[in-house]
Design a protein that fits this description.
The chain is an all-alpha fold. It has two domains: 1-88, no CATH class; 91-142. Helix content is 87%, strand content 0%. The chain contains six helices and no strands. Helix 2 (31-52) runs antiparallel to helix 4 (64-90). The chain is globular and about 50 Å long.
Length: 142
């Protein structure tokens, strides 16, 4: 349980710091160039990480569905990050993150329920409604 909490905190702090760093980075470039440079840097780092893995591990986990989903997620991710960086050139990072992140939760909830057979209960639905209220309040604050 404790390792999961620590990993969760790393995740939260990383994703919380990311939009602020991205907004500063875009000031030195353009949203299109930075998005593509970021993905190239990610690819280089990923090759290094995979190079450190044992060949047996890679062969066990590398398959066509992995390649297919990797390409699909990369395309969706690149289009999404370019649009996010565009918004960061125009608005504060806290506003963009404050609108996009809750909306992301809502969209994930809807797609998950409608297309991926994910479940929900009354408590989760209540949380989604609270997030929706927060999204509305944040939007009105701009």
């Amino acid at each position: 349980m404790i390792p999961d909490i620590l990993i969760g905190l790393v995740n939260v702090f990383g994703w919380g710091l990311k939009p602020l760093l991205e907004k500063n980075a875009i000031k030195h470039s353009s949203f299109l160039i930075f998005a593509n440079t970021r993905y190239i840097a990610t690819a280089v780092i990923s090759f290094i990480v995979l190079g450190l893995c044992k060949r047996k591990y890679i062969m066990k986990h590398m398959n066509m569905p992995t390649v297919y989903y990797s390409i699909l997620v990369a395309i969706i991710g690149l289009v999404s990050i370019i649009s996010n960086y565009y918004l960061l050139t125009k608005y504060d990072a806290s506003l963009v993150a404050g609108l996009v992140e809750p909306a992301l939760i809502l969209v994930t909830f809807l797609f998950g329920y409608l297309f991926f057979n994910e479940t929900f209960n009354k408590t989760r639905l209540l949380g989604i409604l609270i997030i929706s209220t927060g999204l509305f309040v944040t939007y009105k604050s701009k």
